[in-house]
Amino acid sequence: MDRFFLVIVLIVGLFVGYLIGYSIPPFIEAGVFTGRQEKGVKVMIDEKVKKYYEKLYEEEE
């Protein structure tokens, strides 16, 4: 029973470690865990994409 419990703890620990390792880098890139004043990531959109999204919600008559 003791060995079974250790195997379960090991599997859960590996899974949680994987999830934390997968989710932390985006937070660091966005400046959440750093001392930057401005948080977030700059999004660059060209005019073609901007016009597409502006027209997306227009009603057709």
Write down the oligomeric state: single chain
Computed Rg:
22 Å
Terminal CA distance reads: 70 Å
Q: Can you give the helix content as a percent range?
A: 55-70%
The percent range for strand residues is under 5%
* Average pLDDT rating: 86
Q: What structural category arises from helix and sheet content? A: mainly alpha
Largest pleated sheet: none
Low-confidence stretches: none
Q: Would you count the extended β strands for me?
A: 0
Output the number of helix runs: 2
Note the run of SSEs as H and E.
Answer: HH
The global form is elongated
What does this molecule look like?
The protein has 61 residues and is mainly α. The chain has two helices and no strands. It has helices spanning 2-30, 47-56. The longest helix is centred in the first third of the chain and has 29 residues, at 2-30. The radius of gyration is 22 Å and the shape is elongated. It starts with a helix and ends in a 5-residue tail after the last helix.
Topology, pairings included?
Elements: H1 2-30, H2 47-56
What characteristics describe this protein?
61 residues; 2 helices; mainly alpha
